[in-house]
């Protein structure tokens, strides 16, 4: 796929946007931007665990929606419209007890009013831990009050 960005995103700008949010509280960081994907990491530690000592499914979903949402908004002209999450699902495939998980959001569909993103989350051994699909609504600035 060719470059999908309206304006090529910068890692430092995206990371700065996450300051003082749930993303920064969970330690999420954007680490790579390609022509058609955004990659980020999240620690597998007490901030992201459920009581059994595994990454919480909700933490995986937060990482997935963060990556997909940031990517979606980088594909449009933000002076005219913006993207908001409409639906997300996740299949948790492998538990993670330590290390770092890495998620990569790739575009599946870019339409006039919606986008669909696939987010694959892997563990330190590059084994699939979670796969998620995120639907984003593309909203014109004048339609929400």
Write the topology of this structure.
Layout: H1 11-17, H2 22-25, E1 29-33, E2 37-43, H3 57-74, E3 81-92, E4 100-110, E5 114-122, E6 128-140
Antiparallel strand pairs: 1-2, 2-4, 3-6, 4-5, 5-6
GO molecular function, one term: 1,4-dihydroxy-2-naphthoyl-CoA thioesterase activity
Pfam families: 4HBT (PF03061)
Organism: Oleispira antarctica RB-8
Label the structural class: alpha+beta
Into how many domains do the coordinates divide? 1
Strand content: 35-45%
Order of helices and strands: HHEEHEEEE
Distance between the termini: 36 Å
What is the annotated CATH architecture? Roll
Q: How many β strands by DSSP?
A: 6
The DSSP helix count reads: 3
Portion of residues within helices: 10-25%
* Weakly predicted, low-confidence segments: none
Rounded to an integer, what's the Rg over CA atoms? 15 Å
CATH class descriptor name: Alpha Beta
Q: What is the H level of CATH, i.e. the homologous superfamily?
A: Hotdog Thioesterase
CATH fold field value: Thiol Ester Dehydrase, Chain A
Shape estimate: globular
Largest sheet: 6 strands, antiparallel
Strand order of the largest sheet: 1-2-4-5-6-3
Mean pLDDT: 95
């Amino acid at each position: 796929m060719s470059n999908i960005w309206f304006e090529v995103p910068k890692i430092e700008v995206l990371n700065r946007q996450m300051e003082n949010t749930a993303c920064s509280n969970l330690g999420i960081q954007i680490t790579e931007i390609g022509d058609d994907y955004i990659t980020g990491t999240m620690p597998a530690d007490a901030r992201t665990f459920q009581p059994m000592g595994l990454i919480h499914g909700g933490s995986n979903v937060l990482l997935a929606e963060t990556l997909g949402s940031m990517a979606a908004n980088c594909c449009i002209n933000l002076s005219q419209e913006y993207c908001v999450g409409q639906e997300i699902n996740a299949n948790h495939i492998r538990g993670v007890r330590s290390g770092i998980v890495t998620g990569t959001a790739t575009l599946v569909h870019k339409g006039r009013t919606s986008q669909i993103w696939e987010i694959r989350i892997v563990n330190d051994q590059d084994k699939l831990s979670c796969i998620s699909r995120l639907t984003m609504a593309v909203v014109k600035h004048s339609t929400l009050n």
